[in-house]
Amino acid sequence: RFVSAGPCFSEEERPPSPDIEFDSLEEFVLQPAQQGATVKCKMTRDKRGMDKGLYPTYYLHLDNEKKVFLLAGRKRKKSTTSNYLISIDPTDLSRGGEHFIGKLRSNMMGTKFTVFDNALHPDRALPDMSNARQELAAIIYETNVLGIKGPRRLTVIIPGMGKDSERVPIRPRSDNNGLLMKFQNRKMDNLIELHNKTPAWNDDTASHVLNFNGRVTQASIKNFQIIHSKDEAYIVMQFGRVADDAFTLDYSYPMCAVQAFAIALSSFDGKITCE
Hints:
Mean pLDDT: 85
Number of domains: 1
Pfam family, one: Tub
Shape: globular
Distance between the termini: 12 Å
Radius of gyration: 18 Å
CATH superfamily: Tubby Protein, Chain A
Number of helices: 3
Main location: cytoplasm
CATH topology: Tubby Protein, Chain A
Protein name: TUB like protein 1b
CATH architecture: Alpha-Beta Barrel
Keywords: Cytoplasm
InterPro entries: Tubby-like_C (IPR025659), Tubby_C (IPR000007)
């Protein structure tokens, strides 16, 4: 059994998110988490009403008493590759809507994903690209030697941070100089490379385990932690199951909510999902 789980499935309460105040939801979900703080969220999957559960809607809320809504996401139907729209309105998930905040797009194989914000396609942007969309993340799934039964291997590339803790804007004119290509060519200036933490083998449970410190209560192939290779103790993001259609998603600097939510959405995608 290859699972990643919380420590011995303890039934302890999930520690809630600290209270977070913000004026603009749109600004908050695109802003990196404050240094030294972990934003703790809950992600839910709603399979009702959408083509027998083929196109569930995913919601992200702050995991505290107020359960403040942050983001919603859903796969687009008539798209040749997996394409998820991300919205700051739980009911308006339209591409042309004013609440559209970003999207997640996969390659044909469904193994690599790019996350974009809601600005203009490069073809429609100004010549100086100042209003062109930014690439917020690239997500790469590697097939492991054990096939689908082993722990997944995951690489995440995100833009680096400037002196003022602002994200360095990455606005490629084409996919040929986007994050995925930069990573492939090892042109990593102003980029941050993250990986999932390799779960440890536990002889007692005959499974692979990660310590989520009470934030995850159910074993699932989907559970993962994202770390910086230079500091494996620093968890930039963690994601794991707490019920059939409920998951905790926690993220820290330099990640923002849209990046973390999109990474979680990619883990549900059909080509790599193995429940």
